[in-house]
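Quick start: what a row looks like.
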Amino acid sequence: MVLRGYTGIDPSTGHRTVTGAKDEDAVRVYLRAVIGAPLKASAADPSKGEAAFVGAAQRWAKQMGVDRRTLARIGVSRRVLDAAGVTAVSPETRIRRLYTREPFTIAELARCAGATEASVRRVLAAHEKTGEIVRAGRVGRALHYRKARQ
């Protein structure tokens, strides 16, 4: 669910952002129509909702950190995503967005990023070499990592 005024993180800059109410309304109406949720009578025309979604989806998706794959999974058609300019996000980017200063495991990242554990291991190995993350220790058999101080 999209909340008006939700503060997200702009993945390109890492700064907090506040989504515009107009973009959120356009996306909310269209996504509700896609999943079959009840709509207000004023929002019942799907062609108007689709046109508004196409105009707002790219900005909204970038601000909220939502990628093409997520929108496709809930039923937004490829044609609409292409028209809106919503692009796929690489597994590396999805994984990197989840780094925190609190310890996390490979399994947690894989589950949250929707990636395989092998993909997460490969990304973590590369980011550990660059110093972006560090090992935080072990708990049982699970190796924990955390975002490096910068």
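That is the whole record. The longest strand covers residues 133-139. The chain has two domains: 7-84, 91-147.
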